[in-house]
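Usage example:
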Amino acid sequence: MSTAVDWGNLESRIDALTTQFLATPHDAAMPYEGLLNRVRTQAGASNAGGKHLRAQLALSAYDAAADSGRARRSRPVTPGSISMTPSHSTSAARQSRDAMLDVACALEIYQTSALIHDDIIDDSDLRRGAPSAHKALEIGNNERLGHGLAIMLGNLLATASAYVVETSFARLHNHEDGVRAFLGMQRAVAIGQVLDLSAESIPLSDPEQLVCASLEVFRWKTASYTAIAPLELGFLAAGFEPAVAHESALHIGEPLGLAFQLADDLIDVDSSSHISGKPVGGDIREGKHTVLLADALQRADDLQRKRLLAIYGASARSKSDIAEAIGLFQSTGAIAQSQGRINTLFRQSSRAIDTAAALGSKAREPLHAACARMVPIADA
Amino acid sequence: MSTAVDWGNLESRIDALTTQFLATPHDAAMPYEGLLNRVRTQAGASNAGGKHLRAQLALSAYDAAADSGRARRSRPVTPGSISMTPSHSTSAARQSRDAMLDVACALEIYQTSALIHDDIIDDSDLRRGAPSAHKALEIGNNERLGHGLAIMLGNLLATASAYVVETSFARLHNHEDGVRAFLGMQRAVAIGQVLDLSAESIPLSDPEQLVCASLEVFRWKTASYTAIAPLELGFLAAGFEPAVAHESALHIGEPLGLAFQLADDLIDVDSSSHISGKPVGGDIREGKHTVLLADALQRADDLQRKRLLAIYGASARSKSDIAEAIGLFQSTGAIAQSQGRINTLFRQSSRAIDTAAALGSKAREPLHAACARMVPIADA
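Running the assembly step on the lines above writes:
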């Protein structure tokens, strides 16, 4: 039996955990708390509007692993073995799942932290349709103040997420391994961000190198916290052996995370599948060096390549530039190639679920469904 | 018996822990790793040259608490009680102290992280006589790149420090409380940085408010990780009850941390006690709103106040401005007042050591000595 995933609770629980962490005793006595209150308010604003895909994946992984454990424990008792009472009463199981819900929220709080720092680094003024944190925290165009407060807000949320995991995992299996996996995820994302800044310097004249470097960035910066860590934390919390939890999460999560990011880039240029809430072609407008662009450059004939380099070499891109670039992505076959990559990676991830020995056969179906929600455009 | 504090080992151990955390498998296979290598090199450069006062205080607190524990255990056995073997063999004690050494190193690694982010926020181009991290990481005056890499380096070192504590405290007492105390310290420092940015907006016309706000900033931003957390981590690791460890650390550490910061500001203007390696009057050159300045403004007559406001109101301060300001700090009695504050706080901290019931009488002397090293100019 799987407990239903508490989608609706996530937003309010994320808020409650963040508010609790940012509260200070003797508030009234603290002089000049105005900026701290603005930081608190921005924490709520930055947390809002997420789709909570990572939290949902972590809860699904936990449920699948917990179900597998229960299925193993309820196998017929072999003669001579000792009949054991279930390790969890219903109330204990509910308490554990509440703790896992907090771990899932920690993933979202950490994501908010990473996005706030990302937006500073990328100089992005908008996030989810609203001013990004460093813009919202500016006072009178004081950019240094906005950046400073946003760096600190990011730090506070990263620390909050680790604190929630430290506290919640104490009521779950594999406490120490869980905290280490979470901190290892924070490490991977920061390394991925450094690699991403490196990749910016790869010239468009070397699309092969660009594809290779971009996929490496996706591994560190996206797959880590989008798929691998949510799966590993869920498996660990439910009691999988740490090595098993790690290997299973890596085999399922790495291709899943890559497919997720490639799909995100593809959705950006495909109005038919346009569900992200961002305007079509936003990556092209920003001149982002995506895998899609690199694929198009590799497949283009001389004329097509010349046009793409002209569009991306300009200081800005108009609506008609965007339409032309999308047309070139289509006509070079880059879009079909990306869709092919996504399908292959998604199937690889699905096979890893099917061959994960620690997962009971009944527990696999809900996990397949959770992964399919991460990559709705995969054609498996 | 106290194990000798391993001053010499700290620098190399800090380096080893940081290098280990920043290493990646399959390095050779990672494309465009140039920036990551620069970040690794900068981690070493940013860690170097610290005085390791915080690590030393943490080790002293651990030794004092461990000695107190041994003294209690070796008290004459009361009739009827069970004779116990010591809870630690010598080799186990050495292993625990090695773990505590790593926790002490984590405090220094975290400090480096905080200083890197501070320097971005304060737009400081120098740190310990060398280019600050965001300056050193610039390529061809690309400020955005330098800032981005330095934000990530700060994040990596903050996560590294938490990871080291999570791993090391597993071999010490009070594992979970230790990790929570460490993360709570990271939280306090970030809140302190926000309060510090708030305090910048306090006008010099309100020196009373400035003193009050500055001391509050010192509590959060300095005392937290300079004194309270090192003491608490040492006490927890040696096995004090968590509530006792927290209260003792707070009572000793808060006045000690405040005295430390006030002394740092005083040393800045006093060439006779000039041991910090910074040029005399650096805070004045930067126009920093220190407690010393606020005290001087409160004590000044109209003419003195006019001069101070003129010096600090200017866009820059010359050598003769600095000399004049120091003269005014002296003649208004602000320097004597600061020295008085420092002495009072240091005595308060010393009394807290003497009245900490959990500390054995023999363990107090080395802890007094460790605290005196933090505030060499205190006249107790």
